[in-house]
Amino acid sequence: MREVARAAGVSTQTVSRVINDHPNIRPETRARVLDAMASLGYRVNNAARALGTRTTRTLGVIASDATLYGPSVGIAALETAARESGRWIATAYADAASEASVIAAADRLLAQGVDGIIVLAPHVATFAALENSRAGIPVEALHAGVGADRQREGGALAAEHLIALGHGRIARLSGPNDWLEAIARDEGVSTAISAAELVPGPVWRGDWSAASGDAIAPAVADAIRSGITAVVVANDQMALGLVAGLRERALAVPHDVSVVGFDDNPDAAFYAPSLTTVRLDFAGEARRAVAAVLGADEPIVDAPELVPRSSTAPR
């Protein structure tokens, strides 16, 4: 730091303030210090800094399945949000349905001295497990608070879109019943159906995968023959599997049944037919979660947006 200070013509205290993103540094001074750091090949030693500041500027993330679109884009969004706040993330993977697995993941992160933990796609039991771990640091879920509200709003948007198209018999293909995201999306769909004074259709549960959507297709096909005309699916991957499974049974989307997905993953526009879906503000939710564990003012999370495509049509 002394060498950087000499090269930049500033004090070591000024170098320290630049490294720690202190707000009261003139832009030209900050640029001079950063240039000196780059030319000298200076890198911050987080282990050494942690000894003096009692903070590692690292946030822990507990994730359960990064092979799914939601968790994978959530990790990327948290990485960006943490970096914008001058932090890094360390990720530990766990079976979120297993208390022992969640506690082990939390212990791995605590051993690295993380300043807070953000839980990605949590199950109902996850927070109880974290309480048992006695983390002693801030813990937040990606889709908690206003994020959960946005999930409910998204579920309502999907159902309201189908109701506006004249569908009165609406079924649901939900996520696992112990996932907070699945619960919130279900609540939004139920609220919209109840507000329209419609009789709820059948509910099936998948595991978020396309394979589970395909596996449930026979039951959905029977329901279509009994009068169901639309299905709200809790994520795009299950919707993909469902549409393929129905096609194998000579049922066409949207001719025989309209289908709405959730997440607007990058491939949804290229499904056959292209998928009507609900788009969430993942970046905003990540910034909110990071702000929550840092005790900072939480930013606005944009409302969900319905993205109409070819998988839905009038009754």
TrEMBL record:
UniProt cross-references to SUPFAM superfamilies, sorted A to Z: lambda repressor-like DNA-binding domains, Periplasmic binding protein-like I
Gene3D superfamilies: 3.40.50.2300, lambda repressor-like DNA-binding domains
Cross-referenced InterPro entries: HTH_LacI (IPR000843), LacI/GalR-like_sensor (IPR046335), Lambda_DNA-bd_dom_sf (IPR010982), Peripla_BP_I (IPR028082)
Domain HTH lacI-type: 1-53
PROSITE patterns (UniProt xref): HTH_LACI_1, HTH_LACI_2
SMART domains associated with the record: HTH_LACI (SM00354)
Domain of life: Bacteria
Keywords: DNA-binding, Transcription, Transcription regulation
Keyword Cytoplasm: no
A GO term, aspect molecular function: DNA binding
Name the record gives this protein: LacI family DNA-binding transcriptional regulator
Organism: Microbacterium aoyamense
